[in-house]
Structures are given as structure tokens and as C-alpha cells.
Amino acid sequence: MITVINENLYRAEYEALNFSILGGIDYASHDTLRVTLKVNKPDSNYSIRHNIDLYNGNQTERFVVRMSEELEIGILSVRQTLITLTDELEELRNSTREEEITESTAGYQLSADEQEEAIELLSSIDLLAKTNCLIAQSGVVGEEINRQLMYLIYTSRLTNNPLHSIIFGSSGSGKTHLQSKVADLIPPEHKLEFTSLSANSFYYHGQSDLKNKLILIEDLDGAESGLLPLRELQTKKRITKSIVQKGIGGFGKTVQYVVEGPVCVSGCTTQESIYEDNSNRSFLLYVDESQEQDARINAYQRMIYAGKVDESEQEKAAKLLRNAQRLLKPIKVINPFAEHLALPSSVFKPRRTNIHYLQLIEVITFYHQHQRKEQYDKSTGEAYIETTLEDIQMANTLIKDVLLRKSDTLNGVTRNYLNRLKEYLNSTHSRFFTNREIRKEFGIPETTLRRYHNLLVEEQFIAKSRESADDSFSYYLTGLDEFESIDNAIEQALQLCIDNIANPPEVRQ
Question: Is Coiled coil among the key words of this record (predicted)?
């Protein structure tokens, strides 16, 4: 039986041998069991000291032979005692790990006043409006639609069908800051943050370590090798990995690692577009890089340095939202209007996008659970709450830009550039422009600008006007307005959903 003296010294006494485990064991690793052993016979002061990985068959077998020879004990007795020690160390590590998981999931305990304040917020009729105001008070400047969507996406980690997000933006645009500020509104015990990922990093978490957690990736560009298991977690809600370990005597055994989901994943990238298998699982959000947003952020930064931002009030707002998250409990959501919610066929990947739309409505209903009457399934007795028309209207407001982006033939940054270009040409009352003119006006690098223009020419949004002797040319807008057509189609489709709920087609007939 193993006795823990302190974190750096364990003792185990058996009939044939006594062991001291010096330095304890590594509770984080599951594919090795490296220990430093001091071994002696119960009736002797002579000891052997050895550093060994008990999962390495060759090492352990050599150590068994050494102990047998130096301590003058039968080799079978030594081998069986070492096997018993290994089993008990495994059991100690696993039981301690389970206790740590229980403690970490228990999280912060709300006081009576904190609980009352959070319940008051969650019971507010205008809950989403108040939530949006609190997000702003916590220090998130601008980005009104993005910040609401991100907060709801992060809330979906508590449901059986979490949403995911990818935040696009150029270097220095504030995408990582936006993600971290909104993530600050989620309790720390409910999230994990990564700056880089390896291909196997997720497999060595405990079975329940990631369940209903928010996973934040600072830079998706540097996490490519870890995205495959992450995609499986997103889709299948669990990942498994089998490895062969050599035990004492050189015999191998297969060990299977299982990590359970579901998880909510959010990451940032500077790329203009990313691998389709990653993007179509997520809401694609583009940070506001407009001059108006620059002005808002610069003004806020000046206020901070002038000492005119009350950081205690910011933390108070963030803490209230974190406490509200702690009071949300898992509950089934039923949407009685789901059959009337049809998106236009022009939407990219309509099957998966349709699911995202329904899941966004689900999480809005879930967030309002303190205002909804619990009902019970007559056949199973399971509790559930129902979606309201207001939930769908709010989802329509928030998702419209996402649907537009998913339907667009241009990537987000090129579309933003085109919109900015249109505004500039309207202000100059001209249809024609050159690379040199736009580079000077917008401050865009030559290579980036040429990439934008090549794509816009290819998609027929702009065209070359004329070429000169020095191989330069000008461009002009073609007047193509398919984006406006898609915008109108999505607007009409979302409104038709509301109309069909309020006045079903069979009733109109």
C-alpha cells in the first residue's frame, strides 16, 4: 500500500521489498510513469537507487535482474512486487486526477448577493440588450454584432450542440484582443487557452477535461497540426487514440485514450481564407477595420492613459456576466417553429449553415432559461424549454451578416476593401482609379493591393480600362450588384420565416 508522506516522497512496503518514491510522480503525463526509486529489503539498510520509466519493458526487466542479484531475492518475487507497485501508482495517479477534475469543475462559489444580482440579470425581459451593454461596459469597444455573437457562441459550450467561431483580421486589427475580452466574460473554470497545439496534445487530457469547455486558440495559423483532432471533437464530440505500451517482462498492451466533448472552439487568423473543412464548421466573423472603429479605439486608449476609465466598473460588469454564466444549467431546448425556418438556396453550404442558424436560435433560448417555463416530456419526463418568436427575431438580426459572408464569392478582407473602394469613388464622383492612387489614399502595400485587384477582376467586380506604354492601367467598377441581390434575398428569406410563423401558409389558404 502506498503512503504519501508529502508531494516529494511516497512510501510503499511489501513482504519482499520496501520502496521510497523520491520526488513523487508526474500526474499530467499518461504515457509514461517515470519515478526515482530507493529500494531495500525490510530487514536490511542496504538500498538501491534508480531512475526508471515503469512503462518501459526493457528498463524494468534490467532493473528486476539488478534488484534480484544485489538484494539476493528471487527474480519472480521481485518482478511481482514491482508489478504491484506499478499498479498502485497508476491507481493513485488516476484517483488524484479525478479529484482535481472535480475541484476544477466545482469552480467559484457565488455569494448570496452575487447570485441574486445574476438571477436579476438573467430574468430581465431585455436580457440580450442588457448583456450587450454590460459587454461594452467591460471594455469591448465597438464590434456590436460581433461581440454579441461571440458571447452567445461561447455560451453554447453548455449545450449539447456548441457553436464555433473564427475571427478574421489583419495583423494589429484587434482580433485577438476582441476574442480575449469577450472570453474574459466566461468563468475561468469553463475555458482553456492555447497559443500553439501539437498533433497529439488533445489526446492526453483526462476523459472529461474538455467536456463543455471553451477552447481558445490565439493563432490558428500556428496550430495546423492540432486542428484534425479538434475537428473531430467539434463534429463527433469525442476523440480516441490507441497506443501500445510495453510492460514488465517486455509484453505489450494496448491502451486507449478517450477524450469527451462537446467543446466550443474559437480562434483567430490573419489569413484571408482558411481550409474549408475548418471554416464550414464555424461562424466566420470579421473584425471592424473601418476608420470609424479606429477612431473609437484610439479615443478609448487615450481615455485609459488619461485615467478616465474606471477599471473597477469594467471588472464589475465582467464579473456579473461570469456569474450569470455560472447559473446557467443544461436543459433541452425545443423549437416549435423550426419547420418554418428556411434559408435561401444561395447560402454557402446550406446544410451546415442551416444547422448553425437553428443552433444560434437554440442558444438564445438557452440563455433565456430563467424566463422560460420548464415543461416536461410526457413519455420520458425530461425537462425542456421552448423557443419564442423573439428568440428567432434576435437570431435573424445577428446572423444576417454571417449569412452574407458565407454566400459571398469574395473573401472577407477583399469584400471590405471593395466596400471601402466604392465609398472612396462615390466621394470623388469617379468610376476610374489606378493602383498608385489607391495605394496612396489607403496606405495598402503594393502586393496586397494587386492581390485584391486580381481577384476583383477575376470575379468581374472591376475591369481594366486602358493600358499605357509603361504597362500601367486604370480600373473601373463594373456596376455588378450581385452582393446587393444576395443581401435582399437573405433579408426576404429571414422575414418570410417570421411571416410564416405569425401567419402559417395553411392558415392563409
Answer: yes
Closest listed residue to residue 290, CA positions, set 424, 395, 192:
424
Q: List, in sequence order, every beta strand (DSSP E) within 199-307.
A: 213-217, 238-246, 252-260, 263-269, 283-286
Strand order in the sheet with 432-434: 432-434, 473-477, 462-467
The torsion angles phi and psi of 171, rounded to 5 degrees, stand at: -60, 130
Q: What is the pTM of this model?
A: 0.72
Determine the Cα–Cα distance for residues 425 and 442; give it in Å rounded to an integer: 12
- Please give the pLDDT value at position 469: 44
Give SS3 for 305. Answer: helix
* pLDDT at 247 (0 to 100): 61
How would you label 320-335 residue by residue, b for 16+ Cβ within 10 Å and e otherwise? bbbbbbbebeebbbeb
CATH number of 412-478: 1.10.10.10
Amino acid making up residue 376: Y
Please state, as a whole number, how many other Cβ atoms lie within 10 Å of the Cβ of residue 488.
Answer: 12
Instruction: Report cis status (omega within 30 of 0) of the bond before 262.
Output: yes
Q: Pick the closest to residue 494 from 426, 378, 402 (CA basis).
A: 402
- Residue 426: the pLDDT is 87
CA 248 to chain centre: 41
Bridge partners, 158 (sequence order) = none
pLDDT above 90 (res 501): no
Evaluate whether 112-325 and 412-478 have a shared fold: no
Cβ burial 218-251 (10 Å sphere, 16+ → b, else e): bbbeebeebbebbbbbbeebebeeeeeebbbeee
Domain ranges across the chain: 2-106, 112-325, 412-478
Residue 504 to residues 88, 333, 337, 509, Cα–Cα distance (Å): 66, 22, 10, 9
CATH number for the region 112-325 comes to: 3.40.50.300
Q: Which DSSP letter does residue 314 get?
A: H
